[in-house]
Model the fold of this input.
Amino acid sequence: MDDPLHPGPTKTLLIVYHSMTGGTRQMAEAAARGAAAEPTVRVCLLSAPGAQAADLLDADGYIFGTPENLAAMAGLMKDFFDRTYYPALDHISGRPYATLICAGSDGHNAARQVKRIATGWRLKAIADPLIVCTHAQTPDAILAPKIISLDDLKSCEELGAALATGMSIGVF
Done:
């Protein structure tokens, strides 16, 4: 039975990410935890290879998370955008989004690439890209499993919470 004083989720936040060494996954999971605190928002956390255009179309807002590999977004994240761009074009305009980047030294080029795609979809950025720099510079460090700091994970949680709250109250 529906409870009019405590309605179930009415909006969906889709978090799509790719992670090879675990850093971006930790960031995406933290954002999902933050967003899940908003009872009127359903959080859907999907890895990029499993996410489809229907997931984009069914969601009311987005968080895109990717590592920066060789000064670019990860290939599997690019594949997600390649597969979903045209089916979603002109159907998701005006929806809010945020970006999470796990980088070894910079992250800004991956963030620019995500922004260009989001601009084409006419999405509305709700915050600057959240870039976590791991300072991994050697092949061994780059390929090693990542552990994101508690402070950085807290920032990811706060971003997820802010987006979900804004969606819930109709700011976005």
In short: The mean pLDDT is 95. The first helix runs from residue 23 to 36.
